[in-house]
Structures are given as C-alpha cells and as structure tokens.
Amino acid sequence: MAGPPPKPWPTGKAERLEPLVQRVLAPNPSPYTYTGTETYVVGAGDRVAVIDPGPDDPRHIEAILDAVGDARIAAIMCTHTHRDHSPAAAPLTERTGAPIVGCAPLVLDDSGPRADAAFDRTYAPDRVLADGEAMTGPGWTLRAVATPGHTSNHLCFALEESGALFTGDHVMGWSTSVVVPPDGDMGAYMASLDKLYAREDRVYYPAHGPQIDNPRQLVRGMIGHRRQRENQILRILNEGPHAAAEFVPRMYKGLDPGLTGAAEMSVTAHLVDLERRGMIARSGDTWTVH
Description:
single chain; alpha/beta; Arc Repressor Mutant, subunit A; 7-stranded mixed beta sheet; 5-stranded mixed beta sheet; 6 helices; 23% strand
C-alpha cells in the first residue's frame, strides 16, 4: 500500500490523459480514497460520458461541468455505489438532465448491525448495464465488464476505441481493494481478477491512484498476493483456533492504525471464502482448520 504523493495534487483540474479521456480529482482524500476519487469524462465530441461522478460536493460537480464544457452529458456511469463514487450522480442529473447508467442499485439486508454505512442509498439508475452491454456516443463505446467482489454490483467499463478499462475500485493504482463481507465476496473478487487477466486491455484508469500501464502484470501480482494471504491464514490456523482480529498484526506489518478495520475485513473475507470451500470451519468468533 503506497502513501500519497507530495502535494499539490491536481484536485478540481481536468487532466487530459488521451484524446477521449479526461480525469478530474475530487476533494475527498482519506486513508481509503488515497488523494481522492477520480472522475473520468469520456468523449471528444458533442456528447460525453461521466464515469464515477464521486461525492456530492458542489466544488467537484462544478469541476466536472467545467471539464465537460459545451458538450452534453449522454450518461453518468457508476462502477458501484460506495459513497465516494455515486452520490454526485443525482445532483449532476438535476443540473444537466443526463441519465444515470451503469451498476445496479445495492440494498443490503438491514437486520442486525448496519453493514451498508459506506453505500449510497440515493442511487437510482435510469438504466442498469448487464455484462457486455454498452453505452455509445460519437466516437466512443463504453462496454460493461461485470466484476463483482469488492461489491456485488461492481462494473468496469471498457473504452473500445482506445483499449482503456475504467476499473473503479476493483483494481486501484495505489493499493489492493478492500473486500468487506457480507456484500464483498473474496471468491467473486478472485474470479473477477481472473476475468480481467484474460483480457488484453492497454491501460487501466482506476478511481483511486495513478493509471496502470502494465495491466496484466499488475493483475497477476494481485492474484498472487491474495493467494499468499490465503496461505498465511492457513499456516496461522494450523497453530490453533484464531479470531479474525488476531491475524492482522501478524499479516500486516507496519499497517496504518486507521486501516486496521479494513485489514480485519479482508481477513474475514478470506476466512468466509475458505469456509465456503470446505477448508476451514468457524465456531462462534474463532476459526479452525478441518
């Protein structure tokens, strides 16, 4: 997990990354968002798409509209509905009349402790894209690539004209993605990584961190990293029963204390996946090998 680069960051400034792609950084840096959420404006004609409009922050919405300029927004497209990605969709629609297109809304079972605190319940898409469906404009085609795991409704968007893939939080440019049960699913996340590894995208544009110019190499490393975590868990469990929190200090050396909860959730996601595969079992708050 890399630390943020030195300031100043290009917050609120449109950066053109290639002829069809601009990037606008939102003013929401945090230990979970790196320097902030990166919104993308796709297209160079009179109709463009906005990917991951970000938080409902008037400054960021104005920065997006400045990047769009005189063009019309044909679609506001969301990779998933965490609160740093989709809340600006509604006010941006109110300002422009653009439809909201992309991932499905996500409503979690609200019995017991709330697990959806990070989700945007205001998200109301006009059109949900299934895997392989596309949104088009003059000179651009954005095709949905279903990548559940980080969230069950996560999509990536492939820009067919340039070979770019907008990866949301599934693959980020600074850290591995957090997988938080019950909605986050490590088995689905790994299958989605395998799916991306089989593709031949030229470049990834994530929602956090720098662009990724060696996509398949990075994805291969991410798959290997998760397998190493899984093996660490099994080695520790071979010593005896453990609760999820007990894995963190042994597996995450030098971790920012503010990320301890996220690390524990990722460990839990691995544990749930191993249990589902019949390799371990749980008893109350502890886990054991079979």
